[in-house]
């Protein structure tokens, strides 16, 4: 009567807060998700949540099943890992690089959980390949690269992790702060603060400014997000960052966040060597990365 898929669905509904976003997370249509939940309620003879509430409001029966899901699903996954070890004594390494200055916010909790699950897998984030991580991946010096800029390479697969919106951060007193979104022309007289990377790797250029043939008055670089936020808050420039990187500063009313045009969305990928895909520990890392990112980041969507 009650299946693991039902428990996963209820957790997705709770975490996403709506049927539409929950359906995206578990890769179902909204219609299929609604049918699954209605079928489960008919089997159990009780309602599990209140329709048309946001966030979703669960009944006592729904809350009881959520409690069960929180207990059972982690145990089920741990049993799967244990059986894998018994069958093959999994060993390996996971050396990765990050083409994303703000990724540590969700990546470090992911790595911590993965290490707990797979203590026999050697995990490292070496710094020596930061100049060309995808090339190092192709030479088998790395096993995985977190990137938003997939480049077709033999033997490399790009696994989508999540989607995010690129937003413009401006000072609270900035003239643009009263707007909900900006046009490319709005940045013509601005100082644009960016990470020290090539412009063709930044969506604010490739998807927003360059198609409109607009260039900012000046470009300034900063190594760290917190430095960029200090510059923006003090009125010395504007910056475009992933929405999750701005969450803390927006919640503290430190800066204002604006959409670029009608909204620019990008996808973050895990670039993985094909020979490692299908190994239980790599599959588990990718699944853990997705789950952790949705837990700790605001505003991201399934890829």
Automatic annotation (TrEMBL):
Family statement: Belongs to the LysR transcriptional regulatory family.
Main location (coarse class): cytoplasm
Keyword match DNA-binding: yes
GO-annotated biological processes: methionine biosynthetic process
Domain of life: Bacteria
Keywords: Amino-acid biosynthesis, Cytoplasm, DNA-binding, Methionine biosynthesis, Transcription, Transcription regulation
Protein name: HTH-type transcriptional regulator MetR
Organism, as annotated: Cobetia crustatorum
Residues in HTH lysR-type domain copies: 2-59
GO cellular component terms listed in the entry, alphabetical order: cytoplasm; protein-DNA complex
């Amino acid at each position: 009567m009650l299946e693991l898929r039902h428990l996963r669905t209820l957790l997705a509904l709770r975490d996403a807060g709506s049927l539409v976003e929950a359906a995206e997370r578990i890769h179902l249509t909204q219609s299929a998700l609604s049918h699954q939940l209605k079928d489960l309620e008919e089997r159990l003879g009780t309602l599990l949540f209140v329709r048309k509430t946001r966030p979703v409001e669960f009944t006592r029966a729904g809350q009881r099943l959520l409690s069960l899901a929180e207990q059972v699903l982690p145990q089920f996954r741990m049993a799967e890992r244990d059986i894998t070890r018994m069958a093959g004594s999994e060993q390996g390494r996971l050396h990765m690089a990050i083409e994303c200055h703000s990724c540590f916010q969700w990546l470090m909790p992911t790595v911590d959980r993965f290490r707990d699950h797979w203590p026999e897998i050697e995990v490292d984030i070496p710094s020596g390949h930061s100049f060309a991580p995808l090339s190092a991946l192709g030479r088998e010096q790395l096993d995985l690269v977190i990137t938003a800029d997939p480049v077709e390479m033999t033997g490399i697969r790009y696994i989508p992790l999540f989607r995010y919106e690129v937003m413009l951060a401006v000072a609270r007193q900035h003239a643009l702060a009263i707007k909900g979104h900006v046009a490319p022309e709005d940045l013509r007289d601005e100082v644009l603060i960016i990470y020290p990377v090539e412009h063709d790797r930044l969506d604010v250029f490739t998807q927003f400014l360059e198609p409109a043939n607009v260039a900012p008055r000046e470009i300034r670089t900063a190594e760290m997000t917190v430095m960029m936020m200090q510059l923006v808050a003090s009125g010395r420039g504007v910056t475009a960052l992933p929405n999750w990187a701005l969450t803390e500063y927006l919640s503290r009313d430190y800066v204002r966040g604006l959409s670029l045009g009608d909204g620019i969305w990008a996808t973050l990928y895990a670039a993985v060597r094909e020979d490692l895909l299908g190994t239980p520990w790599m599959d588990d890392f990718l699944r853990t990365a997705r789950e952790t990112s949705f837990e700790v980041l605001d505003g991201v969507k399934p890829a």
